[in-house]
Specification:
The chain is α/β, with parallel strands linked by helices. It is built from 6 helices and 5 strands.
Amino acid sequence: MAEVTGRAEKERQAELPPVPDHLERGLQVVFIGFNPSLRSGELGHHYANPRNRFWRILHRAGLTPRLYEASEDGELLKLGYGFTNIVARPTRGIEDIARPEYAEGRRALKEKLERYRPQVACFVGKGVYTEFTRKPKAEWGFQDGFEPAVDGVREFVAPSSSGLVRMPMEEIVGIYRQLREGLEAD
C-alpha cells in the first residue's frame, strides 16, 4: 500500500507545473528558495503553504508595508522584490530533488542573477545558499566576507520561513530586519 501511495505522490508532483519566477531588471532583492511546495505548485504562487511564515516575516521585518498573501507575490515587483528557486519543480520536500536537478538549477540561477542583476540575492535558508555556492557553511546575514557568485550582487542568507524551522519567530524576523537595514543603508 505504501508503494502505491508513494507512486501516486510522485505522479502528482510530476503533473504540477513550475511556479513562475517574478523577475525583472533592477530589483532590490530576489528571494531564492530551494523549490516550490506542492501547495505552491497547485496555486501557482510562491510561499503558498499556509504553514509557511514567509509573508508574515516580511511584514514584521518592515520589508513590506502590509501583510501580503501568496496570491499577491507578483505585486511585490512594485516594491522591488522578485522570486525564484534553485529547482523549479514543486515537491513535497527537498528530499525529492535529485542531484542533477540541483546542478541544472545552480547554472540557471546564476544566469538569472547575471541577467537581472538585483542588488541582493536573498537565499531563504542556509541550505539554499550552500547548495548554490557549494560553500560548506554560511552565517546569517550579508555574506560580505566572501566573493559573490555574481559580481555586483550582494548575497544575504536568511532563515527558511518553513513552519518546520524551530528558530523562534522573533529571531527570524530580526535577521530579515538586517536585510531591510542593509537596503536602507545602500
